[in-house]
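Task: sequence design from structure.
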């Protein structure tokens, strides 16, 4: 199994901070992959940003909370990859908890999507960056499908509901989406980040010291119990319910997640993020993430980190997953837009361009 060798994450976009998926995902996919019939640029989507959108905020997963802690690898991890994050002993971890959606003013429970971004730095400066969500697999096999889903399920102004014919056509073109829609309908909502499982749905290629390559996906599995969200809590919770819960829990003691890798076998769909691998596949615990503190993202250490999951250290490489490859351009473009906003502050327009004579 092969994959392009990735450059060292710590040496790519050294100051690459600032953006995680600019643009709102559907628009971003359209820009990056050229999925629309007419020219579409980042500016097309940034012009839709509300006037009160705070300078420097991420366009997707706009509400976030920084965290810091450590990562301690297992001995088994070094047998799968030569990445120094697995041979450095305990190393620093920096990350961000967030919600799906781009509105930084939305209440915590406006949607069910919870996410974790994470950066681990090995002894030689190599960095392993990742982006995880609480979904078990991607909705479609490619970015085009993600965009098509948004169009198919857009409510009809006349009825307030999606057009059944468009939904049917979408599912005919992307039958794999049916299982995601079924999962989305029945899966329990989480009442705490602390008990949530976060998944990397894209495959990566690990290379060990003998040059052996294997495709892996991984999850962050909590040591804390899952907390289902009751309808009563959902109805009465304040706008910062989940973030307040995190702050309270961290004050009481560290939060722990085990990073568990699932190893592919020949014939498994390595390049299709919509297809889970059989649960019988071998699993290896790569190490433990310990979260010891959280802080507001406005001035927190995570604010200026680009959690681009395509930035991986030596010993890891990208698979040929088209969704994964699309992300690289999205994150880079987001970085540029947000650097302008933070640099110019309110002297920029919604597209991130200087107003008037600002330089």
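Answer:
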């Amino acid at each position: 199994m092969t994959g392009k060798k990735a450059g060292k994450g710590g040496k790519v976009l050294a100051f690459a901070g600032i953006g995680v998926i600019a643009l709102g995902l559907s628009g971003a996919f359209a820009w990056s992959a050229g999925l629309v019939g007419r020219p579409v640029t980042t500016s097309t989507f940034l012009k839709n940003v509300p006037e009160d959108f705070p300078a420097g905020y991420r366009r997707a997963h706009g509400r976030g909370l920084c965290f810091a802690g450590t990562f301690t690898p297992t001995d088994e991890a070094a047998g799968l990859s030569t990445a120094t994050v697995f041979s450095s002993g305990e190393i620093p971890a920096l990350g961000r908890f967030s919600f799906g959606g781009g509105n930084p003013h939305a209440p915590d429970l406006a949607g069910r999507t919870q996410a974790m971004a994470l950066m681990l730095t090995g002894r030689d400066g190599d960095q392993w960056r990742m982006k995880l969500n609480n979904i078990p697999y991607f909705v479609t096999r490619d970015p085009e499908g993600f965009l098509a889903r948004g169009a198919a399920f857009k409510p009809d102004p006349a009825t307030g509901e999606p057009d059944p014919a468009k939904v049917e056509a979408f599912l005919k073109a992307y039958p794999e989406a049916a299982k995601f829609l079924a999962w989305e309908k029945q899966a329990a909502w989480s009442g705490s980040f602390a008990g949530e499982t976060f998944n990397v749905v894209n495959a990566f290629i690990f290379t060990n010291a003998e040059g052996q390559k294997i495709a892996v996906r991984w999850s962050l599995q909590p040591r804390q119990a899952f907390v289902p969200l009751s309808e009563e809590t959902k109805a009465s919770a304040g706008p910062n319910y989940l973030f307040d819960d995190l702050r309270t829990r961290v004050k009481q003691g560290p939060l722990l997640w085990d990073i568990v890798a699932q190893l592919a076998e020949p014939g498994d769909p390595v390049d299709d993020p919509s297809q889970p691998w059989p649960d019988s596949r071998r699993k290896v615990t790569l190490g433990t993430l310990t979260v010891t503190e959280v802080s507001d993202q406005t001035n927190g250490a995570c604010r200026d980190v680009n959690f681009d999951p395509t930035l991986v250290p030596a010993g890891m490489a990208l698979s040929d997953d088209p969704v994964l490859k699309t992300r690289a351009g999205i994150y880079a473009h987001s970085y540029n837009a947000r650097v302008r906003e933070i640099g110019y502050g309110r002297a920029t327009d919604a597209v991130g361009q200087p107003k008037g004579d600002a330089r």
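The radius of gyration is 20 Å.
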